[in-house]
Amino acid sequence: MSAENSTGGLVTVEGYYQEYGSRARELKKQGKRIMGYLCAFTPVEIIAAAGFVPFRIKGDVNEPITKADTEMETIVCPLVRSCFDMALKGKYEFLEGIVIPHACDSISTTYSVWKNTLNLPYSHLIDMPHATGEPSLNFYKEILGTFRKSLSKFTGKEISDQSLNQAIKLYNQNRAKVRELYGLRKASPPLISGAEVAKLLIAAVSIPVEEANQLIDDVIKEVKQRKAVPAAKPARIMVVGAQVDDVAFIDLIEDSGAWVVADDLCPGAREFFADVDVTKNPIDGIAERYLRKIKCGRTFREKKGDYEGYLEERFGHIGRFIKDFKVDGVVLYIYKYCDPYGFDVPAMKSYIESVGAPVLYLEDEYSMSTIGRLRTRIQAFLELIGSK
Amino acid sequence: MTEEKKPEERKKRKTATEAAGRVGPMVKAALAENLRAKEEGKPIAYSFIYSGYDEIIRAMDIVPAWTENYAGICGVKRDAQRFLEKAESENFSRSLCTYALCGLGFDSWREETGEMPPNPPWGGQARPTVMLGSGQIICDPRYKWYQAVQHYMPDVPVFVGGLPYPPYEDDYDYRDVQDYYVKYIVEETRNLVAFLEKHTGRKMNWDRLSEVVDISDRTWNMISEAYDLRKAVPCPMGTGDAMNTMVPMTFMMGTQEAYDFFKELYDELKIKIANKEGIIPDEKYRLLWGGGLPSWFALTDFNYFNSKGAVFPAEVTYRLVEPVYELDLPKVNDPLEHLAWRWVKYWTYRHDKARKRPGSNPDVERLIEYIEEYKIDGVVMHEAFSCRSWHPGLIWQLNQLKRVYRDIPSLILESDIVDISSYNEADTRARIDAFIDTLEAVKSR
Predict the structure, then answer these.
(1) Could you say which residues from 155 to 174 on chain B have a Cβ atom under 8 Å away from some Cβ of chain A?
(2) What interface predicted TM-score (ipTM) does this complex get?
(3) Half-sphere exposure of B274 (CA within 13 A, CB side)
(4) Could you tell me whether strands B158-159 and B130-132 are parallel, antiparallel, or unpaired per DSSP bridges?
(5) N or C end: fewer C-beta atoms under 10 angstroms in chain B?
(6) Which residues, in sequence order, are bridge partners of residue A266?
(7) Nearest 10 degrees: Cα torsion B340, B343, B346, B350
(8) What are the two backbone dihedrals, phi and then psi, of residue B429, each rounded to the nearest 5 degrees?
(9) Are A135 and B188 within 8 A, CB to CB?
(10) How far apart are CA A122 and CA A155, in angstroms?
């Protein structure tokens, strides 16, 4: 079950993953406009509706961070530092601008650094609230309106409701296809590996949504036609964390004798399992999705009933994945300096254990240098699961 | 449970002003008041500084418990490690905000045993009635910390209201968006009042709120006028003292006591200036504390700077006010609306100024303003490893200052706010010595 034997979509995926940004670079040469962004909280529909190809900026665990430290503190989330390092090293020279959402401190407090160091023609910070009540939702709609105006001003062309609705439709199709793809992981053994899914989703956020939709279709078709049934493996693992845009860690788990069958990650289920509702004013549906539907530690949800209900409200989607994908164990894979997820660990761990799944909590630094240490912990965890 | 450890012996920092010397007992008294309030059944609110609700809780006679302050006290007393370790044993990463970790360690310990941890610094922190977070553009712990505490105190309600301010952008002016920012903040603070009325049984007295807001406006002005006096040569008060006087600024805003404190500080500084009495007799270098929270356990480093002939007439950190009469606030009758406007106008105060200097931004502009007005020779910053609220961007600010303004000697110290294990006194002082050498070399050019 690997891309090596593939002649279709998975080969393309491998190419896009290994040469991240190659398709955007080609498109730029053809006259397309590429807009970079960080994090799942950037409303890509608005960027696409403005005529840009939204391009997710990613880091590289294999590349030591060397240039970033001259402008950005080492106490910033290592993923953000790596992304910035790659940008400084010219990896994303095709970008015409950058959009940064107020997702967490590491992303938003470095906005000035990104904006003024890269000196791209366009930059914008989307000042998204943390709270989710009606005033926050209405405020966020205003913020999105300001973003829409700002991008229109930059392109010199108004972003129409029609183009927004078209982008919403395409991205909802994209998400539906990813959900279908995830369905192939429910089988035992799963029809597609965790590493393959991760590579596909990472590739998908680097190309136009229309191409991503075709690519996912191709992969689904290819995987369904696979003749060789993969050998059964003992453990079905779910990985939970923030943005994991490199397959090294997923590979590590699968190389240690388990399947990664589910996740709550970006790119991953967190950002692909929530659609934009079709609303009269398209901004309403977009606001609702990004503020309320994406379940991420950066968004505060008020406790309304008892504490168990509160944990269900915050982490119930993880519980549902555990059940639906027959997960044997969950790995909380949290980066050092990640405040939104770091503060959630005890509550999240306790919730997951309460639904019957063992949990391994790992803190990492977004670097291949830690892989050896992580391997030992993963192997011990799998032994623990195997012994149950 | 982590065993009690005896705190390391610490040296007391020498203050330049009598006012700063009075702050320690004030903090002690405030903590004693919290414990007394608990015994008397008064509502106590876990609170964050500078979260837009000081006046509201004062007007409702709710007793604030400033949890960052208590963590800072644990740091100053060099007695935070056992709480940090307790938090770590609960699976909180040591890379997270150490104010929060200290508080989480303390709270989880108290909840586990049903009583205060043994010998808590200054009597400990009482269990709250409510916890008031804040959703700002900076500081994730402001909405995560109390949510995490709720894991140990699920019965204590948490409020998190949005409190944003317009970012500095090239393609639009803050005035284009300020109305909807103010509207949102007013709605959120009104929700906070409703939350407090529901959970504490206290009713908002709107007339009282107007009075409290008026006191805090006057306090903002008095602080600004007092701090402006530090422009004098020799400088009568340094950043070391300002790390004490931040207490009435941030923990007592909206009280007559805070106003009186700064009026007395103003009077004291006037006398010192008249007598040409500086922090040190022979002032050689005037430095700007250009950013970063201090290492609360190592405030004597300011004395060390003094011993080398260096003083800090100004700091960015904890200068959280501007003269209200310069903020161009619209006249409104609703005190909540006034507070919202003050918040938005404070954060956009230097937007216009920054726009006039290509490549600048409001943070850089503030550095330039202080360098010029306080006759600064060098800039010192501190990078606290556990805080991503105030520290990311400092390196860039310093670089940009040199690009758009002029080259100026600078030093970035590295340690933490609370976690003493990150601090190396010998190394810190060696870096200060080297920096002083640079200042001397530049001066003698």
Answers:
(1) 157-158, 160-162, 164, 166-172
(2) 0.95
(3) 6
(4) parallel
(5) C
(6) A243
(7) -80
(8) -75, -30
(9) yes
(10) 10
